[in-house]
Give the backbone structure.
Amino acid sequence: MSLMTLLDYTSVLVFALTGALVASRAQLDIVGFFFLACLTAVGGGTVRDVLLDRNPVFWIAEPTYLLVACGAALGVFFTAHLFESRYRLLLWLDACALAVAVAAGSGVALSLDQGPAVVVVMGMITGCLGGLMRDVVSNEVPLVLRQGELYVTCAFAGSTATVIAAAVGFGPGLAALACAAMTFTLRAGSIHYGWCLPVYRSRPPR
Amino acid sequence: MSLMTLLDYTSVLVFALTGALVASRAQLDIVGFFFLACLTAVGGGTVRDVLLDRNPVFWIAEPTYLLVACGAALGVFFTAHLFESRYRLLLWLDACALAVAVAAGSGVALSLDQGPAVVVVMGMITGCLGGLMRDVVSNEVPLVLRQGELYVTCAFAGSTATVIAAAVGFGPGLAALACAAMTFTLRAGSIHYGWCLPVYRSRPPR
Amino acid sequence: MSLMTLLDYTSVLVFALTGALVASRAQLDIVGFFFLACLTAVGGGTVRDVLLDRNPVFWIAEPTYLLVACGAALGVFFTAHLFESRYRLLLWLDACALAVAVAAGSGVALSLDQGPAVVVVMGMITGCLGGLMRDVVSNEVPLVLRQGELYVTCAFAGSTATVIAAAVGFGPGLAALACAAMTFTLRAGSIHYGWCLPVYRSRPPR
């Protein structure tokens, strides 16, 4: 199994857990768990594959991804009540999934010899769009756009790390590691220490 | 006209009616009716075709689909005030459209020799995504995710019926019939008798 | 640089400004500005290219588009506080972007020898979907669906103008001009004079 495949599986698994946690917060039935888990798990990678015209899309070529996502949903359905604070758990799992998915997305674009701007954007799309779909569909405020937090910024920094690592001659494995470490560190700092960038603020909008 | 084409036309027509009914509830003008009718009518099938790389997308190959959807919107624009309860009508039309669209989506995937998991997912995508787009765009609570109702579950069961019917040697026509009957029966039972699956419930989420 | 490329750049630039203005209203940080600017700027054209199977998508072939959008976001980040009423500015910029994007979208479909219905729809998709994504993601009421305003209608009329102009033998340049003029005039009349179509109204929906 290639490195990119392994990263794709990991991000599918962890994003599926976050989708299922959101389903548990919305009190859905088991098929609702499957639905949100699969949407979150494969959403970002699907958009990446459609835009890059990779054919067929990764989970159509290899439906095991869907089984992994459904398995994760099933696990959460029966165990979510054991966790004290499902929202903290959701935040941290989402941070892990983000880190892995950004590494997978930018790595795939790199392996297709895309230029730096496209590599950065594909990392951000793969990392952020699954969670964005999850939040839009389930009517939660998108994590992507919450004030006073780093989220898209982490994906941006991680993808940029991939580009820089590749430019200085690192192989795909080290580049993916640099990307995931950068993304996760920034996101964890934002969740735990409240790191953020200055936001736009002026007179109240009219 | 092949069976799959006929199913596509039927689901386009009935989904367009539901889109136009939502437009009437939002008090839009006639072009708003056209817009929501077309989005609902071709949304799910478009995603199916893009993911399966069927080229061109069905309504680009055959723009008559769009005319059918606009005709349906026009009809609703002038007659919707005749109906006592537009919401009940919307629910039941949506159930019919769901049944036909799931049959069309899973049938197309089957005819392209996709494996069982992909057939099931394509049925669910074709059935559920048009209505989901309609509800997200018009700010209604998505039917897909309402508690205590079967919706995605019906699409899942219907698609599975297609797979089983094909596995035991039924032709495409009988498989589509089994799928539509299974989907509609479950959805009708949910609307009329309140059939549902147990939902996830635990201590209140924090 | 071809005419269609020039139109694409212009609509990317102006839509990016509207995305950044929405980001300023939501008080996001600079990466949030980049994100909303890029989503709004390339969203509609990306859907157009995926549906028409133009390969690669325009901003993957030419990532300069993304740099233009990010430059526009940067400009807005540092100057938005200078404007008295950011919402009026947003409305008028959006009207300009709509006019140019409808011309670009219908022009591209025309140049690919699509039939009239597909040309009209591609103009509407390119014009309306970027702004729709911007509004759905940032939880604003979609401009597309506001009562008592012309929006989709302007895109519809503009695309139709392209089709008619091409049918009577105008070249691509004149067709694009006719389209943009028609779209902008209707939208400006709607913003400034309150032009609208009669909306559906009956007994209150239940």
About this structure: The helical segments of chain A are 3-25, 30-51, 58-61, 64-79, 86-111, 116-137, 152-167, 172-193. Chain A has one domain: 3-193. The first helix of chain A runs from residue 3 to 25.
